[in-house]
Design goal:
disordered N terminus; 5-stranded mixed sheet; globular; alpha/beta; 276 residues; two-stranded antiparallel sheet; Phenylalanine Hydroxylase; binds fe (ii) ion
Length: 276
């Protein structure tokens, strides 16, 4: 795609601080500007996760890492990753500046463009997950038009799948969420700690559950496979949004009577205070 110079729109207060928001945020990856230290930091963090994740991350993720040849020295060049990615699933990684407004973010996904490296990119090589991400982007474009509450329901789906999802694989519970695989602590906690709940994925349940942005998750939702996830995004969400609108949201740590419970958390160490 053509790069457009970022046009600064405004500063916004977000949970990531006071940040500039750009209407068109796609820029050239500033690869030549990365310092030796930045490359070394990347290598160190990458190596650490690469040693930790076998047996923890799902095999689709590990296959993606190997196929990209990530970790072969320094911050990867998007242009090189894109050759592999485009050939496999027609996705493309782009560099962006600032925090993208929701609508722009969804538009990128709907057109198979992503930004935000380590955790997300390996799975974009998986055809079913790649389709799910695009379907999510299209759903986002729709939800954006419906309104704030629909957007919140959809954001929870993203949070509990793309960022913090677990999978009930043949080898046992595995991580596929990007927010987990990029954190050493949560890569261990999400699978090994007795503290959080691990509950079977159900789309309405997930869309009505608040989450934590300040701590590890109190609940992880477990999918069977990526096909289940993609199938769940097939129907139009409009009636689901309407139904959920009438019902109260669940707290991040709630366990409900009709949940399929893999493990019920012992709640040790859970922070008090409001969920998002
Ligand atoms: Fe992310």
């Amino acid at each position: 795609m053509k790069n457009t110079a970022p046009r600064k729109v405004e500063h916004q207060q977000t949970d990531r601080g006071y940040v500039p928001v750009y209407a068109t945020g796609v820029v050239e990856q500033p690869w030549a500007n990365y310092s030796k230290t930045e490359h070394e930091v990347w290598d160190t963090l990458f190596q650490r996760q690469r040693e930790l994740l076998p047996g923890r991350a799902c095999k689709e993720f590990m296959q993606g890492v190997e196929r990209f040849g990530l970790g072969d020295g320094g911050i990867p060049k998007f242009s090189e990753l894109n050759q592999v990615l485009k050939a496999a699933t027609q996705w493309e990684i782009v560099a962006v500046e600032g925090l993208l407004p929701d609508e722009v973010f969804f538009d990128h996904l709907a057109n198979r463009r992503f930004h935000d490296m380590f955790g997300h990119v390996p799975l974009l090589l998986n055809p079913v997950f790649a389709d799910y991400m695009q379907a999510y982007g299209r759903g986002g474009m729709k939800a954006f038009k419906i309104g704030r509450e629909a957007l919140m329901n959809l954001t929870r789906l993203y949070w509990y799948t793309v960022e913090f999802g677990l999978m009930n694989s043949d080898e046992g519970l595995r991580i596929y969420g990007a927010g987990i695989v990029s954190s050493k602590g949560e890569s261990i906690y999400s699978l090994d700690s007795p503290s959080p709940n691990r509950i079977g994925f159900d789309i309405e349940r997930v869309m009505s559950t608040r989450y934590r942005i300040d701590t590890y998750q109190q609940t992880y939702f477990v999918i069977e496979n990526f096909e289940q996830l993609f199938d769940a995004t097939r129907p139009d969400f409009t009636p689901i949004y309407a139904k959920l609108h009438e019902l109260p949201a669940h707290a991040a740590g709630d366990v409900l009577d009709d949940d399929r419970v893999f493990t019920r958390g012992d709640r040790v160490g859970w922070a008090n205070g409001a969920d998002t």
